Amino acid sequence: MNRQESYFKSKYFRGFFFSYLILILVFVAGMGAWYLYAYRASYQAGVRESARQKASAFATESDRDLLTAQALCSAMNTSESLRNIYQVTAIEKKTVDSMQLYRALSELSRVKGASGNLDVYSILLYFQGDTRLYAPGTVIALDSAVSAPFAGPWIGQTSVAELLRLQGSTNVILNKQFLIYADVYNGGTGASAKGVALVLLDTSGLAGRMRALQPLLDGAEILDGSRAVYASGDMRQDGEVYEIGSLVAPGVVYRLQLAEAALRTPVPFSVLLPLGLMILGGAAFLYVLYRSLKRRYRPIGEISQMVSTDKDGEKPRDEMEDIMRGIADLIGERNGYREKMITISPYASHGALHQLLSGTIGGQQMEVLREEQFWGLRQGYFVVGVVNLAAVNAAGAPEQRFLDARALAAHACAAFSDEEHTVVTCPRDAQNLYVVVNGDHGEALGELFYDMLPKMVEAIDDSSLAVTVGVSAAQTDPEHLRDACREAARALENMLTGGRGSVYFIDAERDEEGRSYELPKDFQKRVVRDLKENNQEDLNALLDALWEKNIRRAALPPETVRQMVNELHACIGAALREISEKSTTHIRIERIREPATIEEIFAYYRTLLSRAAQAYQEEVAGDSGEALQQDICDYINQNLYNPELSLSSVADHFGVSGKLVGAVCKNAFGKTYLQYVRDCQIQHAVQLLQTTELPLEEIAEQCGFSSLLTFRRNFKAAMNMNPSDFRKE
Length: 729
Fold this sequence. Notes:
Elements: H1 3-9, H2 11-78, H3 80-91, H4 98-115, E1 120-127, E2 132-135, E3 138-141, E4 154-158, H5 160-164, H6 172-175, E5 178-185, E6 195-201, H7 203-212, E7 217-224, E8 227-233, E9 241-245, E10 252-258, H8 269-307, H9 317-342, H10 350-358, H11 363-372, E11 381-391, H12 399-414, E12 421-429, E13 432-439, H13 442-445, H14 448-460, E14 465-471, H15 481-492, H16 495-498, E15 503-505, H17 523-532, H18 536-553, H19 558-581, H20 598-621, H21 623-638, H22 647-654, H23 658-669, H24 673-691, H25 696-702, H26 708-719, H27 723-728
Parallel strand pairs: 14-15
Antiparallel strand pairs: 1-2, 1-6, 2-3, 4-5, 5-6, 7-8, 7-10, 9-10, 11-13, 11-14, 12-13
């Protein structure tokens, strides 16, 4: 009998060997199972994350179409040409002349073309009580007026004929299926509905986006409340569904279902190879263990052979108890090591931090992230910085240029990640970037931005773009991440007095008590006077004096300067309104919303006041303005009894606004345009009723009234009696 056979005849050797064999098999099986489970979980998590990203991209693209449709409806509501068409057809009940119709149809073509969205097939406008639909470049005649009431806004997949309940219409556009966005038309006045504005969206773009969701997502639908707007694929009751609410249309929800087939985990060779290596490693370890065990058991085996007899003998219990105790200790060490290895499980989720920054995470989600530390902020403190990109020239820069610069800045910041700091970035918008720095030394985290700023400027390498950073104070609770973002944005506003190209922090100590700005009490009156006199030198001197007192000498803190800018804005706005009441000069003043320097704000107001002074002089005080006023008055007097005369026709004749014509009439005749024309027409009618026997229809026509009914209504309103009763007296 050889030595190996004798070893396996020993129950102690077999016990030792098979105990380790079971442990190795359990360890290999456990590690293999854990590896397959981790691979499956990682694969499915990647599939779900990819599906969420595709669902978010689908919702974003669909929201873009809805936002375009809303903008088109708003543009139709605010169009002056379309209001003129409504005035003529619905109010005055007249036939639209060809020039007005051409302008309205051209306006619809311009509005549609300006959207820049290829999914917009056409736009339509319908006035209540009318039998026509107005489209870009054409008019669609209807058999009858629309009978269905419409409250709007509304979205759905249907045809125009079905939506408006048009009977017997054969027009292709009216009967073709579209994704229709409809809203009320009120002429931009906010009054009751005057018609319906329709935006026809081609469903092929939406269908293409839904096809692009496959194979990760095999079902999608758009809901408006509980009503299905559009659906594609098969929405199962038991499937995993992502619901994303629209950001532009309240009530609209996008539901997308994850495909079951996408979660089926493949087992490629790259997965089988580690499993094979585990098995080979276990076999090699078993062989080494056998050799070691054989060597260690040799003395016991030799003793066993030496004392072996034909009769049973007992082995020393103390020695075997010592051996078993050592084996038990070894097994305990192995089990402790195995337990430690199995419980190591890495967690990572890059999207959690982005959700915290954007403020789109709920309370339950926050608790899960807090328990599992999914946000990746593993160290004690964090600070948030807002990186602002701005064009230093007046012409500005295209959006793509900002996007490219933002990407370069993010790459430069990410390079600062090391063992002591974790740096992550998240876009805020085209010109702003969030940068989160995580570390164990809170007082030093903000200082890192002083090193980041020159690296970002070097990476962008564009002297026409200024890079400015606002930084929050150090925080410890990731739940306060959004508060830190707002604090960083407030710090960025310190560029108001400090200028661009620096790093700013919140500095509460600068807002000292007793620091106030000086603004002359008669500032508004002086602005009005200089605007009327076109005295641009005095306007500039007025702003220069304000700058000298409050900015150069006083060195006021940003919060006080911000208060001064607010009052300055209010005074200039009131001055512009005052001169607009006495002329047709209308210069719109807007508040600068983005962070800006005080130099940029003052330059904006200088340009604004210069334009207002020039416009006032050209329209009111100039010689050409007086000649134009006289020409307008002569034209109105020469066409008083022309039924086609209207405020818009006079404005179109001279190429000016209707408000200018109204202001000229008020200055020249002391009455509004309509009051003056109606008074002249009624006086002429009185003369004809007293001196002729002409029929009332002919008198109405000679006096410029479009119908006898209109003549009677206006005559009674002016003379307190009907024309026929006046003639009898």
